[in-house]
């Protein structure tokens, strides 16, 4: 019955259960990894600490990545096979696309939260980690430019892919590779302004460390999954995540260093406070006065 199927479609009609399970796990893992970042911005009601260029380049890079995998001949070939194979094999074949789609959606939501909770003034923040000079803070105009540029590139990628797929299919691989290279370059540049911003603040701010702890090793697992699915011909898709994993690891190490420094400072202050109480305890009257004052403060 399936003799008419191409060799690739026959291969996809019998998906490997283990590989399918791993791919589903990666999709869920990508979604879960972004939730701490979404939650942190919403709970703090501030996106301070996130670089506008980091958000912009990350959104454009994600758009380029989803457009890349949707236009790759290997991906379109697998999508065409869905007409001839069952629902389960089709879902297994398209999990690679779903992975990148979920990642793009999650980062696009970060961009929206960045705009919604964009800090208008450094005086409006009650978090000491948000304290910074106004000259170092992004402006509202920059935040609006992030949205405008992201939507503009989305339209360009969408219509460009439609034109190449229908009017010039012989150049579709070149267009897909261009999008993949663009996504890789932007992903590399993306972390440079965020690293600079985090270094200038000397604090993590609204950047989520749990998100990076999940995503840094997850990037390499994700890349391996795409490499197995797309093969060497899809290098422009999975190569992006190897590079971003390395760069995000650098940002994670810096953030953990700042958190460790701040924790040591808090412990030092607590130790000094307890030592001061012990000295005051040498007097029978001073502790009562000192404790009374400390409780009111």
Automatic annotation (TrEMBL):
It is a multi-pass membrane protein. The keyword Calcium does not apply. It comes from the Eukaryota. Keywords: Membrane, Transmembrane, Transmembrane helix. It holds the Pfam family PQ-loop. Residues 269-297 are annotated as: Disordered. The chain crosses the membrane at residues 20-37, 49-71, 91-118, 144-168, 174-192, 238-260. InterPro entries: LAAT-1, PQ-loop_rpt. This is PQ loop repeat protein-like protein.
């Amino acid at each position: 019955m399936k003799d008419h199927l191409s060799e690739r479609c026959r291969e996809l009609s019998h998906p490997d259960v283990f590989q399918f399970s791993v791919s589903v796990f990666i999709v869920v893992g990508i979604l879960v990894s972004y939730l701490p970042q979404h939650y942190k911005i919403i709970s703090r009601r501030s996106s301070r600490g996130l670089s506008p260029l980091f958000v912009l380049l990350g959104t454009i890079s994600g758009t380029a990545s989803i457009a890349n995998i949707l236009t790759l001949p290997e991906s379109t070939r697998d999508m065409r096979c869905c007409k001839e194979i069952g629902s389960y094999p089709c879902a297994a074949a398209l999990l690679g696309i779903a992975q990148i789609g979920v990642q793009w959606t999650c980062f696009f939501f970060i961009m929206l939260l960045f705009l919604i909770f964009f800090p208008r003034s450094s005086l409006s923040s009650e978090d000491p980690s948000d304290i910074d000079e106004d000259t170092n803070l992004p402006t509202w105009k920059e935040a609006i430019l992030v949205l405008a540029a992201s939507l503009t590139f989305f339209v360009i990628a969408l219509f460009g892919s439609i034109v190449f797929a229908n009017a010039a299919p012989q150049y579709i691989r070149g267009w897909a590779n261009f999008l993949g290279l663009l996504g890789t370059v932007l992903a590399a540049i993306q972390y440079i302004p965020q690293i600079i911003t985090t270094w200038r603040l000397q604090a993590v701010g609204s950047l989520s460390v749990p998100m990076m702890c999940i995503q840094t090793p997850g990037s390499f697992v994700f890349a391996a999954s795409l490499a197995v699915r797309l093969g060497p011909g899809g290098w422009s898709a999975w190569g992006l995540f190897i590079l971003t994993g390395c760069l995000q690891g650098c940002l994670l190490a810096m953030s953990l260093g700042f958190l460790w420094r701040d924790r040591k400072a808090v412990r030092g202050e607590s130790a000094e406070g307890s030592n001061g109480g012990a000295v005051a305890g040498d007097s029978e009257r001073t502790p009562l006065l000192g404790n009374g004052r400390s409780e009111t403060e």
